[in-house]
Amino acid sequence: MPELPEVECVRRALAGVLPSEVIGKVEVFTPAMRTPLEPLLSAGLEGRRFTEVLRRGRYLRLMLDDGRGLLAHLGMSGVIRVESGSVPRRKHEHVFLHLAGGGIFRFECPRRFSILEVGDFPELGPEPLTDDFDGGYFYRMSRGRKGALKNFLMDNHIVTGVGNIYATEALWMAGLSPERTPDSVSKRKCGELVTAVKRVLQDAIEAGGTQIIHQLIETTVGLVCRNQYRNIFIIHVLHST
């Protein structure tokens, strides 16, 4: 499943090709993925211009010149391409947005667990790479919380966008067992864990994401973004600390 670094890679690639592009025609080939797709046909997208591409956690919002945004989530197998209209439609491409510049915004998802709809970001916790997410915040939020520390770290209402891959790596870096309870972690160790989360995510973003996730953004001039983060999937035996 694409996590924050992979989605940020996609955001950066789209930000390089979508702004100023005008939607000329909308085609929907599947009634629904995780949510219905047919409302896109009557959403008045034709003639709207893309202005910027935003991200919150693992969600993207493709902003339009009328103030609305196309909310996108890649689910488990979503792929976004912007490429030539001469390329035949792939079996699992469910939405085409024909662009005035001649390309097509294409959304593919074999498992149909992705989202593409007109909408706002959902309510989410702070972004992990901002100052709002620090050791003091994580310590305060973890008081009185039972359950597994890894699940707590992956709760999007606590901090958004930290999924299984990077939570596991950050916990290892901080020397913390994923199975211990959040309220058993000291303030010092909370700070170390937050630092590890930021480091793991930033390193992955700079490298372009993980090798296991192959998200491609293609344009009429070729490949813009392919995730190629080093293989961090070492088997760690974590001892409770």
Question: What's the layout of helices and strands?
Answer:
Elements: H1 4-15, E1 23-28, E2 50-56, E3 59-64, E4 69-73, E5 79-84, E6 93-99, E7 103-108, E8 115-118, H2 135-142, H3 149-153, H4 164-174, H5 187-207, E9 216-219, E10 222-226
How is this structure best described in words?
24% of the residues lie in helices and 23% in strands. By secondary structure, it is of the alpha+beta class. The protein has two domains: 4-122 and 208-226, MutM-like, N-terminal (N-terminal domain of MutM-like DNA repair proteins, Alpha-Beta Barrel), CATH 3.20.190.10; 135-206, Helicase, Ruva Protein, domain 3 (Orthogonal Bundle), CATH 1.10.8.50. The strands form three sheets. A four-stranded antiparallel sheet has the order 1-6-7-5, with no helix packed on it. It has a four-stranded antiparallel sheet with strand order 2-3-4-8, with helices on one face. The chain has a two-stranded antiparallel sheet with strand order 9-10. Strand 3 (59-64) and strand 4 form a beta hairpin. Helix 1 (4-15) packs across helix 5 (187-207) and helix 2 (135-142) crosses helix 5 (187-207). The longest helix has 21 residues, at 187-207. The chain starts with a helix and ends in a 15-residue tail after the last strand. The model is unreliable at 211-241 (pLDDT under 50).
Which CATH class of the largest domain applies here? Alpha Beta
| Most strands sheet | 4 strands, antiparallel
Q: Give me the count of strands.
A: 10
User: Which H/E pattern describes the elements?
Assistant: HEEEEEEEEHHHHEE
**Into which percentage range does the β-strand content fall?**
15-25%
Instruction: Look at the structure and name the CATH superfamily of the largest domain.
Output: MutM-like, N-terminal
Derived structural class: alpha+beta
- Compute the number of helices: 5
